[in-house]
Amino acid sequence: MAVKSVALVAHDNKKKELVDWVEDNRTRFAPLTLYATGTTGRLLRDNLGRDDIHCLLSGPLGGDQQIGAKIAEGEIDLLVFFWDPLEPQPHDPDIKALLRIAALWNIPVACNRATAEFILTSAYMTDDQHHPKKPDFSDYTGRSVST
After folding, report:
1. Which residues, 6 or more positions from 120, have their beta carbon under 8 angstroms from its beta carbon?
2. What pLDDT shows up at residue 82?
């Protein structure tokens, strides 16, 4: 399963780092569908000149939850979330919920530039033969889950 869609999220002190990283990897991102929360999405649009970035709400206003919903619906293949470990966040429960839903649905997550580089340059990014195992929640829900 080649990665086709990426969610990009960054806390205020990490937005420039994320935008710079995406710009440095512009050609790798060119064929991908990009989703981003509020200000991060607008900064990416302005710096990349891409009008096709799906900008959602700002994280504290529900954007983190929108990304989480898209993960649960099978629309996101990779989450890149440059979060700031030194700055308390008033919407910390939303952040934890987003990371939880990504782990629950077996979505790769990069929380810093080094991890993002490893994932972005992985052969699995373009390998249509690789199919990550999707969780089966039928025992939990009492019905089959399809993505």
Report:
1. 25, 28, 110
2. 96
Please tell me whether residue 92 adopts helix, strand or coil conformation.
helix
**Average pLDDT of the residues of the chain:** 90
Chain centroid to Cα 25, Å, comes to 16
Phi/psi of residue 24, each to 5°? Answer: -60, -25
Which residues are designated catalytic? 64
Q: Work out the burial of residue 17: count CB atoms within 10 Å of its CB; fewer than 13 is exposed, 13-18 middle, 19 or more buried.
A: middle
Could you say which DSSP state residue 83 is in? -
Contact of 56 with 41, CB cutoff 8 Å: yes
Per 3-state DSSP, the chain is made up of helix, strand and coil in percentages (nearest 5) of 45, 15, 40
pTM of the complete model: 0.89
Helix axes 63-72, 92-104, angle to 10 degrees: 10
Q: Which CATH class is domain 5-129?
A: alpha beta
